[in-house]
Amino acid sequence: MDIVSDFSLKKYNTFGIEATAKQFVAVHSTKELKTILLENKAQKKFILGGGSNMLLTKDIDALVIHIDLKGKKIIDENDDFVWVESQAGENWHEFVLWTIDQNFGGLENMSLIPGNVGTTPVQNIGAYGTEIKDTFVSCEAMTIENQQIKNFIKEDCNFGYRESVFKNEAKDQYIITSVVFKLTKTNHKINTSYGDILAELEKNNISNPTLRDISTAVVAIRKSKLPDPKVLGNSGSFFKNPILLKTDFEKIQQKFPEMKYFDISKTEVKVPAGWLIEQAGFKGKRFGDAGIHKNQALVLVNYGNATGQEILNVSKNIQETIYKMFGIHIEAEVNVI
Ligand code: EPU
After folding, report:
1. Among residues 143, 174, 262, 310, which one has the fewest Cβ atoms lying within 10 Å of its Cβ?
2. Residue 13 lies in a domain
3. Is 182 in the pocket of ligand 1 (CB under 6 A)?
4. pLDDT tens column, 46-92
5. How far is the CA of 219 from the centre of ligand 1 (A)?
6. In this structure, are 77 and 151 located in the same domain?
7. Strand 45-48 versus strand 60-67 pairing type
C-alpha cells in the first residue's frame, strides 16, 4: 500500500478530466482502509470510488483514498431468494452480469451503469424503471473519524430519487465497504414498463424475456443513447430531472403545451431535463472540448482536453438558459468537486 504524491486522476474519473491528487493510495481490504485512516488522521481526505459521478474542477489538495475492495458472494438463500454481498470496489456492470449468469433477478434493468458497487447506494442509482432501493438490503460502512463499522439497513438510508442519507446527514462521514442485495431465484419480476425496453424486445421478436434478454436490451438502448466513457468522457446524466408541483407545472404547461412530463404523485410531476435542454437548442452543441451529447441532452461530454471548469461553465449556461426559458431550475446530479 504505497502513498504516491502528485498523482494524475485522469484515469480515475469517467469524465477524463486532468487533475492531480496531492497524495493517492488504493486500498484493497477493510484492514488496509483502517490502517490508512488511522495513520493519516490529521490529513484531509477524499474518498474515490469508480469516479463515475463527479466533475473535477480543480486539483485535490488531500490524500485521495481509492476504494478497491474486491469480492462477491452468496451469504444466504432460501427456495425463492438469494442474498448476495459485493465489496465496494467491484465494477457495477460486471457484478450485474455475474448475478444474471446465475439467474438471479433484480438488477438486470440497471445493466451497464458505470461505476462501482460501493457508490450505488449513495445516489440510489436507477434506470429503466428500477432503482437500487428495490433490491438493497443493507450496506456496511466505516466511519472516517474513528474507523467504526456501521451497518445501514434500507430504512436507515432514506432513499429517494437519486438521493440517500449518504448525500445528506451522513455526507463525508462514512466509507461504504460492502453492499447486500436480495435477488429472486424464481418468479423473477421482469420489468418492461419502460417503453424503450418493450420496443427493443419487439424489434428482436422476444415476447417472453429472460433476465439476460432484459439486460441485453438495456445494454443496446444505453449504447445507442449514452456515450461510452472509455471513448468519450462523461458522467452519465449531468442533471436530475426536475420535480415540480402540479400547480406550478400546469402554469408552465399553458405556455409550453408540448412539454413532456410524468406523474410521480398526486401533487407532483417529473419533467425530463433532457427535453428542456433539447428545446433550448443545446443538444449536440460543442464549446471547445466541452459539449452536450448528440443523442441524450442530459449528458455532458469531454471531447478530450476540456477542463472541469469548462464543463461546469457549460452546465451553468444550460441552467441559466432553462431558467429564463421555462422558469424551471435544473439541479446537477453529478458531484462538482
Ligand atoms: N428527452 C428528450 N431529449 C433528450 C433526452 C430525453 O426529449 O435529449 C426526452 C425523451 O424523449 C423522453 C424523456 O426525455 O421522453 C426521457 O428520456 P430517457 O428515457 O432517455 O430518460 P431520462 O429521463 O433522460 C433517466 C435517467 C438515466 C436513465 C434513463 C432511463 C436521470 C437524471 N436520468 O434519463 O440515468 O438511464 O432515465 O431510465 O434520472 C444517469 O443517471 O446517469 C442516467 C443515465
Report:
1. 262
2. yes
3. no
4. 999 999 999 999 999 999 999 999 999 999 999 999 999 999 999 99
5. 15
6. yes
7. parallel
CB of 138 shorter than 6 A to ligand 1? no
Query: In whole angstroms, what is the distance from residue 136 CA to residue 258 CA?
Result: 37
Residue 134 placed within a domain: yes
- Nine-digit cell at 174? 462514512
What is the structure's pLDDT at 181?
98
Q: According to the 3-state scheme, what is the secondary structure of 265-317? A: CCCEEECCHHHHHHHCCCCCCEECCEEECCCCCCEEEECCCCCHHHHHHHHHH
Secondary structure (DSSP) of 151-179: EEEGGGG--BTTB-GGGTTTTTTEEEEEE
For residue 53, give the C-alpha cell.
459521478
Gap from CA of 272 to ligand 1 centroid (Å)? 6
- Supply the pLDDT for residue 193: 86
Q: Containing domain of residue 137, as a range?
A: 72-184
Query: Which residues does the annotation mark as catalytic?
Result: 162, 237, 333
Q: Is 207 part of any domain?
A: no
Distances, alpha carbon 290 to alpha carbons 56, 127, 193, 305, 308, in Å: 14, 25, 34, 8, 9
* Number of CB atoms found within 10 A of residue 323's CB: 13
Flag whether 256 is in a domain.
yes
177 near 67, Cβ under 8 Å? yes
- Express each pLDDT in 304-328 by its tens digit: 999 999 999 999 999 999 999 999 9
CATH code where residue 81 lies: 3.30.465.10
Ligand 1: which atom is nearest the Cα of residue 240?
32
In angstroms, the CA 199 to CA 217 distance is: 9
pLDDT at 195: 79
- Ligand 1 centroid to 116 CA: how many Å? 21
Q: Please indicate, yes or no, whether residues 125 and 39 belong to a single structural domain of this protein.
A: no
- For residue 171, how many other CB atoms are within 10 A of its CB? 11
CATH number at residue 45: 3.30.43.10
Positions in the chain whose pLDDT score sits under 70:
none
